[in-house]
Design a protein that fits this description.
Shape: globular
Number of helices: 4
Distance between the termini: 52 Å
Largest sheet: 6 strands, mixed
Strand order of the largest sheet: 2-1-6-5-4-3
Number of strands: 6
């Protein structure tokens, strides 16, 4: 098989994942499905599919107060621009998920980072309204 065809066949599953993520965020209103589509787009390093899961007026809040509140899709895209250059294997796995009405709480573990960075864990709390993530909060780790 020519090299080009191999590349296309390898890239095809990621592009389909991105299309699925964008479709899920535009089709489903169920909070768990919306957040899973957001995680899938994050793991595919697809910022546009990722952003499609959020409301235009999204607020991203670091509850430890170490980072300023980011409001709106442009700020979201800016905050997650690192995905374009992150290692190919970088992704998060969901250790545990709790869903209560419009709130989804994910305990996440980052994988695919250089060994010296380890496998950091975080908690992300999402509020989903009308099929879009309206608020995303990150509680302090300790």
């Amino acid at each position: 098989m020519p090299k080009f065809c191999s590349i296309v066949w390898l890239a095809l599953p990621l592009s389909l994942l991105s299309l699925q993520a964008m479709a899920a965020c535009g089709t489903f209103t169920d909070p768990e499905h919306v957040v899973q589509a957001e995680v899938d787009a994050f793991n595919a390093h697809d910022i546009e599919a990722f952003a499609a899961c959020f409301a235009d007026n999204v607020a991203i809040v670091d509850l430890a107060g170490k980072r300023p509140v980011r409001n709106g899709l442009p700020a979201l895209r800016d905050a997650y621009a690192f995905l374009r250059t992150s290692p190919k294997d970088f992704h998060v796995e969901i250790v545990k998920r709790i869903v209560s009405g419009p709130i989804v709480v994910d305990h996440e573990r980052a994988l695919g980072l250089p060994a010296e960075k380890g496998k950091p864990e975080a908690v992300a709390v999402y509020e989903v309204r009308n099929g879009k993530i309206l608020n995303m909060w990150f509680p302090p780790p300790k």
